[in-house]
Amino acid sequence: MRDPAGRNHQQFAPYQGRRELVREVDPVEIEGEALDAAPRRLALPPRKPGQTRASLTIPPIPEDAASTTLQGPRKGRGATINPPNRFDTHAAAPFDDGWQTLLPDLGELPPLATTLIRDATRSAISYNQSPDIGFDRAVNSYRGCEHGCVYCYARPSHAYLGYSPGLDFETKLLFKPDIAELLEKELRKPTYVPRPIALGSNTDPYQPIERTMKLTRSVLEVMDRFNHPVTIVTKSAGVLHDADILHRLAERNLVRVYISVTTLDPNLARRMEPRAAAPARRLQAIEELTRAGVPTAVLAAPMIPALNDAEMERILEAASRAGARQGGYILLRLPHELKQIFETWLQQHFPDRAKHVLELIRETRAGGLNDSRFGQRFTGTGVYADLLSKRFTRAARRWGIDTREELDCSLFAAPSDGKAGTSESQLSLF
Length: 430
Fold this sequence. Notes:
This protein has 13 helices and eleven strands. By secondary structure, it is α/β, with parallel strands linked by helices. It has a domain at 120-139 and 175-398: pyruvate-formate lyase- activating enzyme, CATH 3.80.30. The longest helix has 16 residues, at 383-398. 35% of the residues are buried.
């Protein structure tokens, strides 16, 4: 790890209330930093007898050197580029000045380490008034997501924090260490009216750093004590680590877990969502949660034309056989910088079908790559989108996952904080 002062730490350390930036140790990255710190010298051929330095012939620069970017597939990462923040007025681009200074960087790129940054936000619950979303409030313990799903609609939100929605989104992660305390404070307000709180509406609550941080678990513990309904959306089997709390909530009809299954093809999943659980592991999570009495649903999302949409029926069938009781789907969305990120990824991983995929997306998005209108942004428009909707309706009905069940909000009650009991016990002495 490396703190803002540049000091190296030899092991990953939990936040422990610290405010500084912490990093994972990456031997390849450390080696790269050592190389970057050393002065770069142009490799020149040895001088012949009587030859002056000025008369040396410099090797020609490859024709494609100037057009080659420093971005590309990174091991374990989804996005292949790091586009500029749309709010920045200036952007930097690599440029070869004729001295071959870029050539050492044009080879295979080293892995990127994950950076953790303390989020000083003083609120836990975020509210929305969107008419096409089934919840009006959410809690996100993390911002940015290490799963690295290249299609993630939440990527553009990283620009509000001053970072790129590309590689920054999956490598620069913000966490809220006091999220549980903030949530409890808000739930205790006399004016608070309970409605289901969504976990995972922006970034996955069970991404890899949850294993260390356990912030999602702390939020669920608050929900459990307050008898507050909660929904969870994740593509991680890490949700099973909290099966004990989820079981208690399920006994009071206070929880529903939505497992996102994008594809059943492990090779495609590895390219689209490199650090998420394998498809088979997600189906296993549905099965184990169902066995624990936790109501579980499946989200076939997003459906990408000519890439994974042919799997919709098989995904719903597999999830139903695993125990899912509800289902849903969402058509691919490409807001803001996500258009460039997804198109570049598509060209690099599927050059043979990239043009066809983009044409079908435009067909469902009124000629563009995105349509943000309420009521249409999740399902799209046109013949192709209508067919996808009908396919889902038929498959969901066939496999019995077309039901809708409401969570119970009537049990909500703020637990005693202990102060009243202490006062009463003291008065009883007189």
